[in-house]
Design goal:
Largest sheet: 8 strands, parallel
Radius of gyration: 17 Å
Strand order of the largest sheet: 4-3-2-1-8-7-6-5
CATH class: Alpha Beta
Shape: globular
Helix content: 40-55%
Strand content: 5-15%
Structural class: alpha/beta
Order of helices and strands: HEHEHHEHHEHEHEHEHEHH
CATH superfamily: Aldolase class I
Length: 272
């Protein structure tokens, strides 16, 4: 077995040493085209993203709200495949991008082959994968292939997850635990309930020492400032895609850089 890639856990170690939360951003690979994705990957790295979730577009997404679902559809229409996403990640890694975690679903991995996907993801420079629709009871169907390749598998804890099950999920999660900030799918249309999130984080922190990153519904600098003092990571996806909008190429990269730089500045302005 290859040693677990410490670029994933190291992201949080470095952020904690700097007295801040880690900034994690989500992008759909191939939206609206591969060239734009490459430029945006470089831009968000330059703007201070600590970790990038790179979504593999999928036609039947469980956790994706309308913004991400539409982005995935655009990417699929542009001909994006798992292999083309792997190539994008490999090229970005070679240019020195922030560590990449793939975001995908059970079915694409099963169709590709867990061992083949894990090996290809490792070769592309990725540090792990998030698979939101895998139940804890079915994790062993492909987790061994990922861990044999040295890839982390961060797992999600939902608002409805009972405490004992949340602890069990955290125990098997690699790198960090993804704390879902609200019921429903991704999207930036509703305000996050900061008090509820603080309570959920506090309850889970009593059961695990792993970093806790919060996502779903976080979109603005004031959200980041409110959450930064008590979470280990902040995940922003739909709002970044909205900020890029219909832009392509350098214009998309500029919009992404400006938006992510604002979030990073908000994180830097808080203390832990």
């Amino acid at each position: 077995m290859i040693a677990h890639d410490d670029r994933l856990s190291g992201t949080f170690v470095r952020a904690r040493a700097a007295g801040r939360a880690a900034l994690i951003v989500y992008l759909v690979a191939g939206d609206p085209d591969a060239e734009t994705t490459g430029l945006v990957l470089d831009a968000v790295t330059e703007a201070g993203a600590d970790l990038i979730e790179l979504g593999i577009p999928y036609g039947d997404p469980l956790a994706d709200g309308p913004t991400i679902a539409a982005a995935a559809q655009r990417a699929l229409e542009a001909g994006t495949t798992i292999d083309s996403v792997l190539a994008l990640a490999a090229a970005a890694h070679a240019r020195g991008s922030a560590p990449i975690v793939f975001f995908t679903y059970v079915n694409p991995i099963s169709q590709y082959g867990p061992a083949a996907f894990a090996a290809a993801a490792r070769a592309a420079g990725a540090v792990g994968a998030i698979v939101p629709d895998v139940p804890l009871e079915e994790l062993d169907e492909f987790a061994p292939a990922f861990r044999a390749a040295g890839l982390g598998l961060p797992l999600l804890v939902a608002p409805t997850t009972p405490p004992e099950r949340a602890a069990a999920i955290a125990a098997r999660s690699d790198g960090f635990v993804y704390v879902v900030a609200r019921l429903g799918v991704t999207g930036a249309s509703r305000e996050p309930d900061v008090d509820w999130i603080r309570g959920a984080v506090d309850r889970l922190r009593a059961r695990t020492e792993k970093p806790l990153a919060v996502g779903f519904g976080i979109s603005r600098a004031d959200h980041v400032r409110a959450l930064s003092p008590f979470v280990d990571g902040i995940i922003v996806g739909s709002a970044l895609i909205d900020a890029i909008g219909t832009r392509r190429g350098a214009a998309a990269a500029t919009a992404a850089r400006t938006y992510v730089a604002g979030l990073r500045a908000a994180i830097e302005g808080t203390t832990r």
